[in-house]
Amino acid sequence: MNIYAFGPVAAALDAASTVLQFLSSVLQPLAGGASAALAVVALTVLVRLVLIPVGVSQARAQRMRTRLAPRLAELQRRHRRDPQRLQRETMALYAAENASPLAGCLPLLLQAPVLSLVYGLFILPTINGHPNVLLTEWLLGAPLGTSFAAAVGAVVSGHPLQASAGLAVLPGSPDALPALVVTGVVLVLLAAVALVSRRVTLALAPTPEAAAAPGSRGSSAPQSSMSQPRGARSAGALPPAAPDLPAALAPGGSLQRALSWLPLMTVVIAAFVPLAAALYLLVTTTWTVAERALLHRLIR
Q1: What is the C-alpha separation between 297 and 196, in angstroms, rounded?
Q2: Residues 6+ apart with CB under 8 A from 231
Q3: Residue 97 DSSP one-character state
Q4: In sequence order, what are the residues at sequence separation of 6 or more whose Cβ sits closer than 8 angstroms to the Cβ of residue 131?
């Protein structure tokens, strides 16, 4: 089922397309033939401005998780062998801190349909039964309806440039080389932003030192019975430390490092979608990285 063909969604897409065309006409005197591409940038920025509260909510949730990480790690060490006790103590900790383990999730779920709707503007050949005129526009000699993959195929084969969004033909029999250059530059910029995003993600993630509770025995070898006080040995006041998390799952472990490469998947996607969608991905990814870094400094 094509969700974009669903009545209310199609109507919302049609309205968003009208807004996009209006922005393009307003920018025409300033940008000339690049007005449609600039309208893509402007619409993306407007949408992200509206979604700033979502970013603030996620930043606060991340700050809360970082602050509670040492205490949660200590609870796991103490009650690992008693899952029910661990769950009770964890929820009690969240209640005492007036926090929630799901903080930031609801706003994130609310923003997903908005971003998906905007993304649809840049990939669909038809919107609510009529052609998507955006994909027939140009940017520096490259049609907004073609992709990097299509441009590479046209240059290698010598065949005419094809659209990547289901359009029957591209207007004006465009040359593949300008399209290859423009889409390639967008991909290079997107890859650079993705690498910066990875560095920001690793910088903001809890470190092994931050996740270790103060004075916990999980970060050092357990004390032997000979080095413990006599009363503690007799009363059993110092139980053996629970095993730590597997190294791969621990903060800063191999799983976290592997997941940090996920932003580069956006570059792969952008290589196969229309140039209009690649521009959108570039702008929204850049916004996300800058917003996360800024909010991390502002929210304490």
Answers
A1: 17
A2: 237
A3: T
A4: 125, 167
Cα 210 from Cα 71, distance rounded (Å): 10
200-245 per-position pLDDT tens digit: 877 766 555 544 544 444 443 344 333 444 444 444 443 443 344 4
Residue 33 and residue 143 in contact, taking contact as beta carbons nearer than 8 Å: no
In this prediction the pTM is: 0.77
Helices (runs of H) and strands (runs of E) counted in the chain: 12, 4
Residue type, 151: A
Structure tokens at 111: 């923003």
| 3-state secondary structure at position 265 | helix
Q: Which two tokens stand for residue 92?
A: 């009690």
Each residue's pLDDT tens digit, 20-42: 999 999 999 999 889 999 999 99
Q: Give Cβ neighbours of residue 94 (< 8 Å, ≥ 6 apart).
A: 68, 100, 101
DSSP state of 134: G
Q: How far apart are CA 146 and CA 162, in angstroms?
A: 7
The H-or-E segment that residue 142 falls in is strand 142-143
Cβ neighbors of 102 (< 8 A, separation 6 or more) are none
Residue 121 tokens read as 């503007």
Query: What is the domain partition of the chain in residue ranges?
Result: 3-210+245-298
Q: Residue-wise over 198-225: b if at least 16 C-beta within 10 A, else e?
A: bebbeeebbeeeebbbeebbbeeeeeee
Q: DSSP characters for 24-87? A: HHHHHHHHGGGHHHHHHHHHHHHHHHHTHHHHHHHHHHHHHHHHHHHHHHHHHHHHTT-HHHHH
- Angle at the Cα of 297 from the Cα atoms of 293 and 298, rounded to 5 degrees: 115
For residues 68 and 48, the answer to whether their CB atoms sit within 8 Å is no
